[in-house]
Amino acid sequence: MGPVARRGLRLAAVALLAVAIALPLPAAGFSGFGSSTADATYGGPMRFTVQLPGGPPDQLELLLRFAGSDSTVVAPVDAGPSSAEYLWDTADRHITPNTPIAYRWRATTGEQVILSPEQTLLYDDDRPGLDWQTARIGAATVHWYGGAEGQARHFGTISADAAAAAEALLGHDLAGPIDIFVYDSRDDFFGALGPGAREWTGAATFPALRTIFMWLGSGSGAFLETTMTHEVTHVVFQDATSNPFHEPAKWFNEGLAVWSEEQSAGGHEAAVRSAAGSGDLLAFEGISESFPIGDQAARLAYDEGATMVQMIVETYGRDAIAAIASAWRDGAGDDDALEAGAGVPADELYDDYFASFGVAAPTAIEPAPILPSNVDKPPQPAAPAGESAAPTATPVEEPAESGSGIGWLAALAVAGVAVGAVVGILATRRRRPTHP
Fold first, then answer.
1. How far apart, in whole angstroms, are the C-alpha atoms of residue 350 and residue 363?
2. What confidence tens digit (pLDDT) does each residue in 82-92 have?
């Protein structure tokens, strides 16, 4: 190779280096999710973290699904250069202990959406001093601390009998295991229930979590035994009536649980007769979704529910209870479900009930009319003509390969070839012999 050719090659190398320096380096970008972790301390923050080895995406969100809820919480997260963290402060947003939480991260880059694998965090009651011990008894796992082992194991035995009785009455099997947490102190018990608990509560069931909380100080041994039967019945009732449309009437749910304690409502008739005499009975339509806040009115709602269930069993047979539950499970409304079991319209059922206590059915208070608004609303801007919705991104399970690095190398290669060709032409022209 002659000196002219060598000089041409040197010029090509210099030009190629200059192009490489002039081209922008590929920016670091989201390349997928790294490790993802979650931890929680009861009453404190739940912490969710994820590593972003290639850098943050255009948009990052944490998706949370709480057991017992059909909805998904979507939390926007500001990502750092190589990781992201989200905190849920349970001191401000209470979560019931023993709640499984499914979580995953969602990254959006351009029109591409990437999901991390779904993981689960169990939010449990790990407060200091609660050194939980557990035992499996039948379909129940009992949890206790301190010296409550004997009572806890007894509750496990009662729960098996109560579940069998409720299954026979409702015509539906228990759908899964139950967790029973036994609290020794009132503060521990109400600390688990959270700020919404009413002061007269002695036990609580969260059927969607299949979890029962018992407070040993809420009553005598006999009371605790019937309360355990009551709470287990709630879980079986949830399984027997679960549907995607609505919750069954609260008065029936609670009334059935009260009736199941003794397979009778005889002990509740006197309270209903007393309320009938004073004109204080509650309309069933008014206690279908919630009970009164006050202790006396709330207890009357339980009494009415239990005595109504008693009337249905005595008049239409135990099979009517299973038929009502089946109708709810199929999506029927309250009135249709009651008619499916009793064979008479719900209004007739209500009238017969109140007549048995010598009174007419309570009439609803007519609501006051809602007057037209007198607030002047500011004019709303019209939407731009032809405006269309944003494109829908298609989620994928695994990170897609980015073409940014390949494009940069291709551009560099093309530029190098072009410069080399120009320099080569110049060198060739210099090598041509001149003619005289």
1. 12
2. 999 999 999 89
